[in-house]
Write a structure and sequence with these properties.
Elements lengths: L2 H36 L9 H4 L9 H7 L1 H8 L21 H4 L2 H5 L3 E2 L5 E2 L6 H6 L6 H8 L21 H6 L27 H4 L10 H6 L26 H24 L3 E3 L7 E3 L23 H14 L4 H4 L1 H15 L14
């Protein structure tokens, strides 16, 4: 007569054990996610991305959306404020964490406006990534700055225009959002559509570590050991005769040639030697000793390059655009090839430059 009670006790005990085991699994999974996030760029609270404003004590509204979690929440309107704008400076040393992306406002976000003013809809889960990985300038920014100016005249009022950093979304959408400087009279490719299983940011990037899983790439792209060796395009875009190298190699060669052409143009047309320092704003400096290298002493803001012509500025902008998306060869190789090719062709109108005769993409 006690069996029903015993069965109930056994069932309750089993459920309790199952619940405890499930809770332990969930805790372990959450702990693993947190550890992965802390070791990734978005969770690195020591990074300059989150410490740059420490002396000021707050992240300004123009930067807060992407450089402080409270700023991103403010931008999304998840704090009850108006969406699409940051209303107040945000706290320093607060990286992009769980509350940035795991809110109803973040989950519902589906459309993002780029610096060109173009809005892209139906972004799905890539929308939150797109907010901060679109850059801060566009072809329109550069065109407006040089409008009406002589292409090869040094203009003291001109300064370098930095597209900003990690501009993958701008690369991916190509001509549609005009992230790179697009020369008049030239056609540029739009959104790079890959296979459905690799069509969103998190299809390839782990959302917490941001690391790329390369195994799915190598499953389809046979015969290579790493993704930089994947071809995706079959022309000889850099004109070196090597059609076996990955498309990454084609882009790297063209960018190197563009950097060399920028140096020659600056010396021969602008009249002042220029150099590039990859890790120091504003990146282009006066090469005071003319040795082709920017030393730590030269890479200081007072020594920034100031002899810009419109033609030089456009080419330098595209050089930087290609540098600030290291994954461009995956995100939209055709678009970056076109930008680099056309920048070389533009400089070749004034100086001797080897411009590959092959197609642009």
């Amino acid at each position: 007569m006690f069996r029903p009670a015993i069965h109930r006790i056994a069932i309750v005990a089993a459920l309790a054990l199952a619940s405890t085991a499930l809770a332990q699994e969930e805790d372990a999974a959450l702990s693993s996610i947190v550890e992965a996030w802390l070791a990734a760029p978005h969770g690195d609270y020591r990074s300059p991305s989150f410490t740059h404003w420490n002396a000021e004590g707050e992240v300004p509204t123009t930067c807060a959306a992407c450089h402080s979690e409270p700023g991103f929440i403010d931008y999304l309107g998840a704090d009850g404020s108006a969406a699409g704008v940051v209303d107040a400076p945000a706290a320093i040393n607060v990286p992009i964490g769980c509350a940035s992306c795991h809110t109803s406002a973040a989950h519902e976000l589906d459309e993002v406006t780029f610096p060109s003013g173009v809005s892209v809809a139906a972004l799905g889960e890539s929308a939150v990534c797109t907010v901060c990985h679109q850059g801060r300038a566009s072809s329109d920014t550069v065109a407006a700055r040089v409008e009406g100016l002589d292409e090869d005249a040094v203009v003291s009022e001109l300064g370098f225009i930095n597209v900003h950093y990690a501009v993958a979304a701008a690369t991916m959408h190509g001509a549609y959002v005009r992230g790179g400087f697009q020369y008049a009279g030239r056609d540029y490719v739009g959104r790079f559509h890959h296979v459905p299983s690799a069509s969103t940011c998190t299809s390839c990037h782990d959302p917490h570590t941001t690391e790329v899983s390369t195994e799915p790439c190598l499953t389809c792209h046979r015969g290579v050991d790493e993704i930089t060796a994947i071809r995706t395009r079959h022309g000889d875009f850099d004109g070196d005769g090597d059609t076996a190298e990955g498309i990454h190699g084609e882009i790297e060669t063209l960018r190197t040639r563009l950097g060399e052409a920028i140096v020659r143009y600056a010396a021969g047309v602008s009249g002042e030697p220029i150099g590039y320092a990859a890790g120091t704003f504003p990146y282009f400096f006066l090469d005071t000793d003319g040795d082709g290298d920017i030393s730590a002493d030269e890479a200081v803001f007072p020594n920034r390059y100031q002899s810009w012509t419109p033609r030089l500025l456009k080419a330098a902008y595209n050089y930087q655009f290609s540098k600030k998306d290291p994954g461009a060869y995956v995100h939209n190789p055709g678009y970056v090839l076109q930008l680099l090719h056309d920048s070389l062709a533009s400089l070749a109108e004034r100086i001797e430059v080897e411009v590959p005769a092959q197609r642009r993409q």
